[in-house]
Amino acid sequence: MKIGIAADHGGFALKQQIIEILEEMDFSVTDFGAGKLNPADDYPDFIGPLARAVSSGLADRGIAVCGSGVGASIVANKFPGVRAALITESYSARQGVEHDNMNIICLGGRVIGPELAKELILAFVKAHYTGEARHERRLKKLESIENQMFK
Ligand code: RB5
Q1: pTM
Q2: What does each C-alpha distance from 67 to 18, 22, 86, 97, 130 come to in angstroms?
Q3: Buried-most residue among 64, 74, 108, 127 (CB within 10 A)?
Q4: Band of the pLDDT at 151, cuts 50, 70, 90?
């Protein structure tokens, strides 16, 4: 699985911790920045390229971190085919993939700590979309909205 990650200054510290956690578990991770802590940087500049990579299939899953996770989720969902959500507990980290085929998890670097982040990310990367008919039906409806709105 190709995993991408990105964060602004609000999520920078957590991003670095998550990269270490994933590498310890032998996941390969592409870092879309920020490359260093810059308190004046803007989350769309990093979350945008990550979401573009997920949208185009260059990455299978993404981890987007900002201070609250809110800006990250708003930006990520501007990209066709991206299904991003702000997650704070493990039920949704897993079920969001199983039912909604969530492909970007958004986290708040000022909201959660590294241990909870680890649990959420593990739940996210281990989960698989079930493809059940009711979920497919709902995703088709989402796709149709996306096709109308992103013309
Ligand atoms: C940056 O200070 C902060 O506004 C940003 O990281 C994020 O929380 C926005 O949603």
Answers
A1: 0.97
A2: 15, 20, 11, 23, 31
A3: 64
A4: confident
